[in-house]
Sequence to fold (223 residues):
Amino acid sequence: MLREIAHFVWNAPATLRLKARLPQEQLYETLMDRADQAGLADHRRALVADLAGDVLELGSGTGRMFPHYGADARVTAIEPDARFAALAEEPRRRAAGAITTTIGSGEALPFDDARFDAAVVALVLCSVPSPAAVLGELRRVVRPGGQLRLIEHVRSHRAVAGWLMDRVDGAWLRLNAQGCHLNRDPLPEIRAAGFEVVRTAPFQVYSAGLPAFPMRAITATRT
Ligand SMILES: C[S@@+](CC[C@H](N)C(=O)[O-])C[C@H]1O[C@@H](n2cnc3c(N)ncnc32)[C@H](O)[C@@H]1O
Fold:
Protein backbone atom coordinates (compact mmCIF):
# COMPACT_ATOMS: atom_id res chain seq x y z
CA MET A 1 0.00 0.00 0.00
CA LEU A 2 2.91 2.35 0.73
CA ARG A 3 4.09 1.96 -2.86
CA GLU A 4 0.63 2.98 -4.18
CA ILE A 5 0.49 6.03 -1.89
CA ALA A 6 4.04 7.11 -2.82
CA HIS A 7 3.19 6.72 -6.51
CA PHE A 8 0.10 8.92 -6.14
CA VAL A 9 1.77 11.63 -4.06
CA TRP A 10 4.89 11.74 -6.26
CA ASN A 11 2.85 12.26 -9.45
CA ALA A 12 0.10 14.49 -8.07
CA PRO A 13 1.75 17.94 -8.59
CA ALA A 14 2.53 17.33 -12.29
CA THR A 15 -0.95 15.88 -12.87
CA LEU A 16 -2.61 18.90 -11.26
CA ARG A 17 -0.58 21.21 -13.53
CA LEU A 18 -1.65 19.15 -16.53
CA LYS A 19 -5.27 19.28 -15.38
CA ALA A 20 -5.13 23.09 -15.17
CA ARG A 21 -3.75 23.31 -18.72
CA LEU A 22 -5.71 20.73 -20.71
CA PRO A 23 -9.40 20.24 -21.45
CA GLN A 24 -10.84 17.11 -19.83
CA GLU A 25 -10.73 14.93 -22.95
CA GLN A 26 -7.09 15.84 -23.73
CA LEU A 27 -6.10 15.21 -20.13
CA TYR A 28 -7.79 11.81 -20.39
CA GLU A 29 -5.92 10.97 -23.58
CA THR A 30 -2.57 11.99 -22.09
CA LEU A 31 -3.06 9.92 -18.95
CA MET A 32 -4.46 6.95 -20.88
CA ASP A 33 -1.56 7.01 -23.36
CA ARG A 34 0.72 6.51 -20.40
CA ALA A 35 -1.46 3.83 -18.77
CA ASP A 36 -1.81 1.89 -22.04
CA GLN A 37 1.95 2.04 -22.60
CA ALA A 38 2.52 0.90 -19.00
CA GLY A 39 0.57 -2.31 -19.64
CA LEU A 40 -3.13 -1.50 -19.69
CA ALA A 41 -3.27 -1.98 -23.48
CA ASP A 42 -2.23 -5.62 -23.04
CA HIS A 43 -5.17 -6.20 -20.70
CA ARG A 44 -7.51 -4.42 -23.12
CA ARG A 45 -6.39 -6.72 -25.95
CA ALA A 46 -6.71 -9.88 -23.83
CA LEU A 47 -10.24 -8.82 -22.88
CA VAL A 48 -11.70 -8.53 -26.38
CA ALA A 49 -9.37 -9.94 -29.07
CA ASP A 50 -11.35 -13.22 -29.37
CA LEU A 51 -14.82 -11.67 -29.53
CA ALA A 52 -16.88 -12.28 -32.67
CA GLY A 53 -20.37 -11.35 -33.79
CA ASP A 54 -22.39 -8.39 -32.54
CA VAL A 55 -20.59 -6.63 -29.71
CA LEU A 56 -21.79 -3.65 -27.68
CA GLU A 57 -19.15 -1.43 -26.11
CA LEU A 58 -20.60 0.77 -23.39
CA GLY A 59 -18.88 4.03 -22.44
CA SER A 60 -16.39 3.76 -25.28
CA GLY A 61 -14.87 7.15 -24.45
CA THR A 62 -12.06 8.16 -26.79
CA GLY A 63 -11.95 4.72 -28.47
CA ARG A 64 -9.16 3.17 -26.43
CA MET A 65 -10.61 -0.34 -26.91
CA PHE A 66 -11.10 -0.01 -30.66
CA PRO A 67 -7.60 -1.16 -31.78
CA HIS A 68 -8.03 -4.40 -29.85
CA TYR A 69 -11.13 -5.88 -31.51
CA GLY A 70 -10.60 -8.54 -34.14
CA ALA A 71 -12.00 -8.40 -37.66
CA ASP A 72 -14.82 -10.83 -36.68
CA ALA A 73 -16.39 -8.42 -34.20
CA ARG A 74 -19.10 -6.03 -35.38
CA VAL A 75 -18.91 -3.37 -32.67
CA THR A 76 -21.61 -0.89 -31.71
CA ALA A 77 -20.08 1.67 -29.36
CA ILE A 78 -22.14 4.00 -27.18
CA GLU A 79 -20.74 7.00 -25.30
CA PRO A 80 -22.54 9.93 -23.62
CA ASP A 81 -19.77 12.55 -23.93
CA ALA A 82 -19.62 14.08 -27.41
CA ARG A 83 -16.09 15.47 -26.88
CA PHE A 84 -14.79 12.02 -26.01
CA ALA A 85 -16.72 10.46 -28.90
CA ALA A 86 -15.17 12.93 -31.36
CA LEU A 87 -11.69 11.75 -30.38
CA ALA A 88 -12.80 8.14 -30.97
CA GLU A 89 -13.31 8.79 -34.70
CA GLU A 90 -9.71 8.20 -35.72
CA PRO A 91 -9.29 4.88 -33.86
CA ARG A 92 -12.71 3.87 -35.23
CA ARG A 93 -11.52 4.41 -38.81
CA ARG A 94 -8.29 2.52 -38.21
CA ALA A 95 -9.93 -0.49 -36.49
CA ALA A 96 -9.67 -3.98 -38.00
CA GLY A 97 -13.40 -4.63 -37.76
CA ALA A 98 -16.56 -2.60 -38.35
CA ILE A 99 -17.31 -0.15 -35.54
CA THR A 100 -20.28 2.19 -35.39
CA THR A 101 -20.56 4.83 -32.69
CA THR A 102 -23.58 6.47 -31.16
CA ILE A 103 -24.21 9.00 -28.41
CA GLY A 104 -26.14 7.65 -25.43
CA SER A 105 -25.81 6.27 -21.94
CA GLY A 106 -26.05 2.93 -20.24
CA GLU A 107 -29.20 3.58 -18.24
CA ALA A 108 -31.43 3.48 -21.35
CA LEU A 109 -29.82 1.56 -24.19
CA PRO A 110 -31.52 2.18 -27.54
CA PHE A 111 -31.31 -1.48 -28.60
CA ASP A 112 -33.69 -4.46 -28.77
CA ASP A 113 -33.61 -7.24 -26.20
CA ALA A 114 -30.93 -9.93 -26.79
CA ARG A 115 -29.49 -7.94 -29.71
CA PHE A 116 -25.81 -8.58 -28.85
CA ASP A 117 -23.55 -11.61 -28.53
CA ALA A 118 -21.34 -9.76 -26.05
CA ALA A 119 -20.96 -6.48 -24.19
CA VAL A 120 -17.70 -4.77 -23.24
CA VAL A 121 -17.34 -2.28 -20.41
CA ALA A 122 -13.92 -0.76 -19.70
CA LEU A 123 -13.47 1.57 -16.73
CA VAL A 124 -17.09 2.71 -16.75
CA LEU A 125 -18.95 1.22 -13.76
CA CYS A 126 -16.81 3.33 -11.40
CA SER A 127 -18.51 6.47 -12.69
CA VAL A 128 -22.10 5.64 -13.61
CA PRO A 129 -24.72 6.92 -11.14
CA SER A 130 -26.28 3.43 -10.78
CA PRO A 131 -24.21 0.35 -11.73
CA ALA A 132 -27.30 -1.81 -11.01
CA ALA A 133 -29.41 0.10 -13.55
CA VAL A 134 -26.68 -0.10 -16.22
CA LEU A 135 -26.04 -3.80 -15.60
CA GLY A 136 -29.78 -4.45 -15.85
CA GLU A 137 -29.80 -2.80 -19.27
CA LEU A 138 -26.73 -4.78 -20.34
CA ARG A 139 -28.43 -8.02 -19.35
CA ARG A 140 -31.48 -7.03 -21.39
CA VAL A 141 -29.53 -6.40 -24.60
CA VAL A 142 -27.11 -9.36 -24.37
CA ARG A 143 -28.54 -12.69 -25.54
CA PRO A 144 -28.79 -15.62 -23.07
CA GLY A 145 -25.38 -17.30 -22.97
CA GLY A 146 -23.70 -14.16 -24.30
CA GLN A 147 -20.69 -12.61 -22.62
CA LEU A 148 -20.02 -9.56 -20.51
CA ARG A 149 -16.35 -8.51 -20.44
CA LEU A 150 -15.16 -5.79 -18.11
CA ILE A 151 -12.07 -4.02 -16.91
CA GLU A 152 -12.77 -2.12 -13.72
CA HIS A 153 -10.75 -0.64 -10.91
CA VAL A 154 -12.12 -1.80 -7.58
CA ARG A 155 -12.09 -1.20 -3.85
CA SER A 156 -9.13 -3.00 -2.30
CA HIS A 157 -10.01 -6.22 -0.49
CA ARG A 158 -7.24 -5.44 2.00
CA ALA A 159 -8.77 -4.04 5.20
CA VAL A 160 -6.63 -0.93 5.69
CA ALA A 161 -6.41 -0.04 2.00
CA GLY A 162 -10.18 -0.49 1.58
CA TRP A 163 -10.84 1.64 4.64
CA LEU A 164 -8.52 4.34 3.30
CA MET A 165 -10.20 4.27 -0.11
CA ASP A 166 -13.58 4.83 1.59
CA ARG A 167 -12.15 7.84 3.44
CA VAL A 168 -10.64 9.55 0.36
CA ASP A 169 -13.40 8.74 -2.15
CA GLY A 170 -15.08 12.14 -1.71
CA ALA A 171 -11.83 14.02 -2.37
CA TRP A 172 -11.06 11.81 -5.39
CA LEU A 173 -14.56 12.45 -6.75
CA ARG A 174 -13.99 16.22 -6.61
CA LEU A 175 -10.51 15.90 -8.10
CA ASN A 176 -11.42 13.76 -11.13
CA ALA A 177 -14.67 15.69 -11.83
CA GLN A 178 -15.92 12.71 -13.88
CA GLY A 179 -18.01 10.98 -11.25
CA CYS A 180 -15.33 8.30 -10.74
CA HIS A 181 -15.50 6.48 -7.38
CA LEU A 182 -12.41 4.60 -6.24
CA ASN A 183 -14.16 2.28 -3.77
CA ARG A 184 -16.67 0.31 -5.82
CA ASP A 185 -16.82 -3.48 -6.10
CA PRO A 186 -18.85 -4.40 -9.17
CA LEU A 187 -18.85 -8.19 -8.69
CA PRO A 188 -21.93 -8.48 -6.41
CA GLU A 189 -23.93 -6.19 -8.71
CA ILE A 190 -22.82 -8.10 -11.83
CA ARG A 191 -24.11 -11.31 -10.23
CA ALA A 192 -27.29 -9.66 -8.94
CA ALA A 193 -28.07 -8.38 -12.44
CA GLY A 194 -28.16 -11.93 -13.81
CA PHE A 195 -24.64 -12.72 -14.97
CA GLU A 196 -22.51 -15.64 -13.87
CA VAL A 197 -18.95 -14.50 -13.21
CA VAL A 198 -16.64 -17.07 -14.79
CA ARG A 199 -13.26 -15.35 -14.48
CA THR A 200 -11.69 -12.48 -12.57
CA ALA A 201 -8.04 -11.60 -13.11
CA PRO A 202 -6.44 -9.02 -10.81
CA PHE A 203 -3.79 -6.62 -12.10
CA GLN A 204 -2.32 -3.20 -11.41
CA VAL A 205 -0.82 -0.54 -13.65
CA TYR A 206 1.71 2.03 -12.49
CA SER A 207 1.63 5.01 -14.82
CA ALA A 208 2.40 8.66 -14.12
CA GLY A 209 -0.69 10.65 -13.19
CA LEU A 210 -3.12 7.85 -12.37
CA PRO A 211 -3.43 6.08 -9.02
CA ALA A 212 -2.26 2.44 -9.12
CA PHE A 213 -5.76 1.18 -8.37
CA PRO A 214 -6.41 -2.53 -7.87
CA MET A 215 -7.91 -3.57 -11.23
CA ARG A 216 -9.89 -6.59 -12.38
CA ALA A 217 -10.47 -8.10 -15.81
CA ILE A 218 -13.83 -9.84 -15.50
CA THR A 219 -15.63 -12.30 -17.77
CA ALA A 220 -19.26 -13.13 -17.06
CA THR A 221 -21.97 -15.07 -18.89
CA ARG A 222 -25.53 -13.80 -19.28
CA THR A 223 -27.83 -16.33 -17.56
C1 LIG B 1 -12.82 6.31 -17.55
S1 LIG B 1 -13.70 6.56 -19.02
C2 LIG B 1 -13.41 5.04 -19.91
C3 LIG B 1 -13.48 5.22 -21.40
C4 LIG B 1 -13.11 3.99 -22.21
N1 LIG B 1 -14.04 2.90 -21.95
C5 LIG B 1 -11.70 3.55 -21.94
O1 LIG B 1 -11.50 2.38 -21.59
O2 LIG B 1 -10.79 4.37 -22.07
C6 LIG B 1 -15.37 6.40 -18.51
C7 LIG B 1 -16.33 6.56 -19.66
O3 LIG B 1 -17.65 6.22 -19.22
C8 LIG B 1 -18.53 7.15 -19.80
N2 LIG B 1 -19.76 7.18 -19.00
C9 LIG B 1 -20.00 7.88 -17.86
N3 LIG B 1 -21.27 7.68 -17.45
C10 LIG B 1 -21.83 6.82 -18.32
C11 LIG B 1 -23.12 6.23 -18.44
N4 LIG B 1 -24.08 6.49 -17.55
N5 LIG B 1 -23.36 5.40 -19.49
C12 LIG B 1 -22.38 5.13 -20.39
N6 LIG B 1 -21.14 5.66 -20.33
C13 LIG B 1 -20.86 6.50 -19.31
C14 LIG B 1 -17.75 8.46 -19.77
O4 LIG B 1 -18.32 9.43 -20.64
C15 LIG B 1 -16.38 7.98 -20.19
O5 LIG B 1 -16.21 7.97 -21.56
Observations:
- Residues 24-48 form the longest helix (25 residues).
- The chain has one domain: 2-222.
- DSSP finds seven helices and seven strands in the chain.
- The beta strands are 53-58, 73-79, 99-103, 116-122, 142-153, 195-203, 215-222.
